[in-house]
Amino acid sequence: MLNLTKLFPSWDMAKFEVCCHKWADLSENDYGVSILNDSKYGFATCGNLMRLSLLRAPKAPDAHADMGRHHIRYAILPHATGLNSDTVRTAYEFNNPMQLITPSGPAAPLADTAAHLSKAITLTGNP
Question: Are 34 and 84 within 8 A, CB to CB?
């Protein structure tokens, strides 16, 4: 009989942590949930529990690892299907948010901007 009220010791749970960049997912065929993050890479899943490791506390080789102020962004993404490309796309967008860049000088007409952008792209080689 499995006793879900008793958790494994922390050193036992750490054995099952895996490295996942940007996201982790726990899904069935018709529903699921993903954890998105922008800076932490340790995930573990045990039964219906999924966790994201926020900090580590190693003492060797760097006694000061993960000390200090941290800025962590994460999001919970429930979905009504199994894992699909929407999770991957959303995780990518979460990790690479669109940035508004304003010109520092006078605004150029849109036609001039488009011409400038097309000059930056040069195709070379044989077709």
Answer: no
In the three-class reduction of DSSP (H, G, I as helix; E, B as strand; rest coil), residue 52 is classed as strand
Do residues 73 and 39 touch, judged by C-beta distance below 8 A? Answer: yes
Is residue 28 helix, strand or coil?
coil
Find out whether 63 and 11 touch, Cβ atoms under 8 Å. no
pLDDT in tens, 77-120: 999 988 889 999 999 999 988 887 776 766 655 556 566 665 65
| Gap between the Cα atoms of 104 and 79, Å rounded | 41
Q: Are 25 and 36 in contact (CB under 8 A)?
A: no
Q: Are 82 and 27 in contact (CB under 8 A)?
A: yes
CA 46 to chain centre: 20
Rounded CA separation 32/37 (Å): 17
pLDDT value for 93:
92
Burial of 17: CB neighbours in 10 Å, binned 0-12, 13-18, 19+: middle
